[in-house]
TrEMBL record:
Protein name: histidine kinase
Residues of the full protein shown: 463 to 723 of 854
Domain Histidine kinase residues, every copy: 20-243
Gene: cckA
Amino acid sequence: LEAQFAQSQKMQAVGQLAGGVAHDFNNLLTAIIGFSDLLLLKHKPGDPSFSELMQIKQNANRAAGLTRQLLAFSRRQTLRPQVLELPLIVDDLTVLLKRMIGEKNQLSVEHGRNIWPVRADVVQLEQVIINLVVNARDAMPNGGSITLRTANVERSEAERLTFDGLVANDYVMIEVQDTGTGMSPEILQKIFEPFFTTKELGKGTGLGLSTVYGIIKQTEGFIYPVSQVGVGTTFKIFLPRHVPSEAEIAAKTTAAAAPAR
Ligand code: ADP
């Protein structure tokens, strides 16, 4: 628990710092990109300086992309939790996800029956799934398969899982499995730390999984990675089952009973 508290304190501090720096930095980058555009207009594509100017502009654009990610990480967006059906969220994302992982990777989706609802912010949950799938893709440079699974996990079953801190509750689990490189225990230990990345400069910020961690904590859920070098990685996320209040049930019944027009 103490470690988790330290982790969230650290994330908050990093978030504030990163947000401030990213904001100012982004303004400077906008100026660099703007002035390179002006200079590019004064050169023809064949000119010796043209390709160098293009390099400046392209790299400034990449840097702007990174600062945008930093800003997204630091922004404490107000949560809009609503009652959601996880399988629908996953299904709505599959076209986008398939495009993101490209032709050499396969995506399959397996839903359990009658998955319980959860209460969460849709945009944030989508961000979680996208981040995990992008990481899975990056871990499979030669291609492979990614499986998304949803399942109900009953309280008794959840209690049997020896995961620390799993509070007695019914959970809905979403799993993202890949057949990628896997991670050593040393790396696995650090993956939720802000700015921890093994990706080359310009490719990774090390903010993906710390963002995911933050979102899952706010939703009162848990995330567990299981990984084996050379075999692959599975991220399991547990979100508490949403049990509708009597008022919610009443509202639904009335809506259903209303005559269709
Ligand atoms: P980034 O993707 O920018 O590096 P993340 O926080 O998303 O930042 O991930 C941190 C690190 O965790 C990655 O650089 C990688 O080493 C490791 N990692 C994350 N997901 C996977 C995965 N599915 N397979 C192997 N390694 C992974």
